Amino acid sequence: MEVVHNKNSQTENSTTKPQKSMSPWAMARRKFMKNKLAMISLSYLIVLGILSFLAPYITTADISRVNIGDMSLAPSAEHWFGTDTSGRDVFTRLLYGGRVSLLVGISCTAIILFIGTLIGSVAGYFGGAVDSMLMRFTDFILNFPFLVFVIVLNAILFGIVSGVWVLIVVLSILGWGGVARLVRSKILSEKENEYILASISIGCKPGKIILKHLLPNVLTTVIVQATILFATMIVAESGLSYLGFGVPQEVPSWGNMLAASQQPEVLQNMPWIWVPPALVLILTILSINFIGEGIKEALNPKSYR
Predict the structure, then answer these.
(1) Among residues 292, 301, 305, which one has the least CA distance to residue 37?
(2) Looking at the whole model, is its pTM more than 0.90?
(3) Of 280, 294, 229, nearest to 45 (Cα)?
């Protein structure tokens, strides 16, 4: 009887043993992975990115060569998505265009987040004259008419910076203001907490306090903002390229491919030329937005309850 009693007590102890608590990031990752729409969108972006950046190994068609004999051909076994008015394969240009559009979106987002986070964190932490000077400069950038200055700077830098990087530099220079103000507001509220005041009192350097204590606590806001920026930069590139002020015409991008729809004949009678880039662009923007909403919901502390 004593042996049975001991066994029962052991089983009770094993069942009542407390489980190891999950970290907030693990809980956020788990909640994000349960969001089916966000996971489908993430899978779509991963597949799109792989296909775009492996384009030279997937297709061997020339993206710039004009083929007079293959102009405006409908989709067929040889040309899956048909050809454009210059005889270039639409499927090939769609893949290479994805490389350019995604490169612009990723590069601009990374540069904007770096500049905006740096200026916002310095202004929010130091305050006073430093905050006033940096925020006046930020207001100066935000007050620029975005489209006009992108076109002007693009024309000025065209001979200095080559190709796609002209647009990346211009969009990055004019796009960091909103991030800076957002990070500054978060830093201002965060630096009043006791652990920050304790770090200052024991003599921690400002750089260490910003990097080790403040930025990790505003990281969730920056991550959500990154998804918004990513979609915005892709749309900006496509819109500017459609108008003729973005990526050079000889470089394929989704915006340059959509520019062919400006011709009434193409718009009405040749949908295979402009529908694929338009559809891919819409799906990409929707996927990024769904991922952003999934991240926002997963990082919300109230959703853990």
Answers:
(1) 292
(2) no
(3) 280
